[in-house]
Amino acid sequence: MSSDVIPPQPSPTLIRTRDFVEAAVALICEAGRVAIDSRGIFRLGLAGGSTPKAVYEALAAQLNPFPWEKVYITFGDERCVPPEDAASNYRMAYESLLSRVAIPSANVLRIRGEVPAAQAASECECELATIAERMGETLYSHDVLLLGLGEDGHTASLFPGSPALEEKERTVIPAFGPKPPPQRVSFTFPLINASRHILFLLNDPAKEPVLQEVLLGQHPAARVRPNHGRVTWIIGER
Ligand code: 6PG
To answer: 238: exposed, middle or buried (C-beta count within 10 Å: 0-12, 13-18, 19+)?
Structure first.
């Protein structure tokens, strides 16, 4: 295949289920075991917002033993607030998952919302680059990256019309958005699209229209097209 021919993107997998949480937990754990068998660690990127909370709680509560000590946690985006702030994505993940399982604290790559966004972004970018180099990768490659979808078609903190959408070099940058709080730090599409498996979590029937538009190539979330990985949507039904 000549270099200027872009291989067709595999279509995303859509899983429509009334058992949203169970389906998400099963898929995450299965991918985690495969990653650990293959590379010795499981690199899981967490989504923010409210949808993932029930999934994180169920992950923490599952009775099957899981090798949490081999898990590395990152955050697809963070609001620029202190970690104890109610708006912090880290706080939501800590309360629902990280405080309940034995992930070594050194394996949690928190985006420091309490420092200036540019500093927090650079810190995270450097941490990811160090691990990527150790893994022999050009870009940090999440085994599973969880993402949400906003009603305007944003994902992470990559909002419609934002210059952050056009970032081609950096992996983590400051970003603004209309969803409060406005100042954020976000993974960029180069980093997102280096993931092995992207898992969108959607559990709100009111978002079905924007989902259909994303699947037609509209909105920022449509730019999630992993270079070598795949995309699965877990869509909760009532
Ligand atoms: C954030 C999230 C954002 C979120 C969507 C969906 O920090 O707000 O990263 O991208 O995933 O806005 O949010 P809900 O799950 O609350 O609907």
So the answer is: exposed
**Which residues have any ligand 1 atom within 6 Å of their CB?**
47-51, 76-77, 79, 89, 148-150, 154-157, 179
pLDDT for 10: 74
From the CA of 41, how far away is ligand 1's center (Å)? 26
Q: What is the pLDDT of residues 119-133, one digit of tens each?
A: 999 999 999 999 999
Q: What value, to the nearest 5°, has the Cα angle with vertex 25 and ends 21 and 27?
A: 120
Q: If we measure between CA atoms, which residue out of 196, 186, 97, 85 comes closest to residue 139?
A: 196
Q: Which pair of tokens denotes residue 237?
A: 């039904």
- Pairwise CA distance, residues 148 & 220, whole Å: 12
Model confidence over 3-59: pLDDT tens digits? Answer: 556 556 678 999 999 999 999 999 999 999 999 999 999 999 999 999 999 999 999
